[in-house]
UniProtKB/TrEMBL annotation:
Species classification: Bacteria, Pseudomonadati, Planctomycetota, Planctomycetia, Gemmatales
Superkingdom of the source species: Bacteria
Pfam families cross-referenced by the UniProt entry: DUF2752
Name of the protein described by the UniProt record: DUF2752 domain-containing protein
Residues that span the membrane, as ranges: 37-55, 99-118, 125-143
Length: 165
């Protein structure tokens, strides 16, 4: 009787082709443990380099960071406007300023593990909550009236800054 496990063969590059569902990539190729470890180390190095650049090079108007296309074309703030400045402020310990640049980031990022590892039903509810929050944030931050105008990216005054930890 044939086995229900698919046959697998290892190529010279350390990639196992035709293995079971665990560890498969989108193309159906299973990576060996050493290849996955090398990719993980590479991702950590890249994240560290991006973090270093973000913490040392301020995203000012004449910096080489990409500008928001929607804001450049229409003057409206998309839900992501201010995220680079928020990351720079956060990496330099200015939590209040980071929230002033883009508050939705602090609501959505903690939900990412739930979206990745939560039960299927919780993932759906969390995804709809996150999408609704992002869309609502994107609309409300463009309303030119208090308190909604405070959702647009802005520089805090000296009295508004939270103390550094």
């Amino acid at each position: 009787m044939p086995s229900s496990e698919p046959s697998s063969e290892r190529t010279a590059s350390g990639i196992t082709v035709g293995a079971g569902p665990r560890g498969l990539t989108a193309s159906g190729v299973r990576l060996t443990r050493s290849v996955r470890l090398a990719l993980g180390v590479l991702v950590l190095i890249l994240l560290g380099a991006v973090g270093y650049v973000l913490s040392t090079v301020p995203p000012t108007g004449n910096a080489w960071y990409p500008k928001c296309t929607l804001h450049s074309a229409t003057g409206l703030h998309c839900p992501g406007c201010g995220t680079t400045r928020a990351a720079h402020a956060l990496l330099n310990g200015h939590i209040g300023q980071a929230i002033a640049y883009n508050a939705i980031v602090f609501l959505i990022f903690p939900l990412l593990p739930v979206l990745q590892f939560g039960a299927r039903r919780i993932q759906r509810v969390t995804m709809w909550f996150a999408l609704t929050a992002i869309l609502l944030f994107g609309v409300l931050r463009n309303v030119p009236a208090e308190p909604f105008s405070r959702l647009a990216p802005h520089q805090l005054g000296a009295t508004e800054e939270l103390p550094r930890p």
